[in-house]
Amino acid sequence: MRKVPxxxxxxxxxxxxxATRYEASKGYFRAIGDAGGLPFGVPxxxxxxxxxxxxxxxxLCVGGRFAYPDDWYVAGQxxxxxxxxxxxxxRRIIEGYLRLDKPVLGICAGMQLLGCVxxxxxxxxxxxxxxxxxxxxxxGDMHLIRVKPNTKLAALVAEETMLVNSxxxxxxxxxxxxxxxxxxxxxxxxxxxxxxxxxxxxxxxWHQEAFASADHPGNRVxxxxxxxxxxxxxxxxx
Length: 238
Description:
CATH topology: Rossmann fold
Number of strands: 13
Helix content: 25-40%
Largest sheet: 9 strands, mixed
Shape: globular
Order of helices and strands: EEEHEHEHEHEEHEEEEEH
Number of helices: 6
Radius of gyration: 17 Å
Structural class: alpha/beta
Strand order of the largest sheet: 4-1-5-6-13-12-11-8-9
C-alpha cells in the first residue's frame, strides 16, 4: 500500500517564446516535496488524461499565460494571451478531479482555470479594470492581501493579512454561486478562491511557489493540500 501521495503537476510551456518546451518553476516541486508529497510533471498528452485522473491523489495547476475561451471573460473582453494546447488537457483533468472530489490546488492561471470551470468570469487586463488597481504584473513587487475569515484558506494560513507577490495580467472578475472569494488585495482584486462543496479545491492568484524556500505563512496551503491528498490516498486504500 502506498503511503506517500502522488501529486500531478500540470506543466506550463514557453508561450512567451515558440511554445516548443515544457517548463515549470522548481518551487512547485520543492513545495510539494517539503510538504510530504511526490510531485510528477504532466505533459499535454490526451492519452494520459484518464490515467492522471485515476492514478494520482492530487492535482496542482501551475501558473502560465495562455488564452481561455471568450465566454470565460466578462462581456466585451477576450484574452490577449496566445492559445495553448494545455487548456484542453488541463480542463478535462481538473473537471475529472472535481467530479471525484480529489484535492485541487491552482496557482495563478491554475486558479483562474479552477474558478472558470465553476462558472467564474475573468478580466482580460486587470490593470484596466479600475484606476485604483495596483501593479499586478510587475516582477519583484509585493502587496498586502486580506484573508476572509471562516474560510478554508483562513484556517490553513492562520493569518488575517499576508504580503504576497503578483505576476498576472488576467484576474477573476466575477465569482459564481459555487465559489467563495477568500482573499483580496487592498485594491479589491480577488487573490484567492475556494469551492466549498469540495473537500479541497483552492486557488491562489499569487505565486506561492516562489516562497518555497522561505518562512511564509502561505506555505501552509501546500501542507494542507498534501494532507488532503494523503487523506484521499488513505481512503482509497491504494
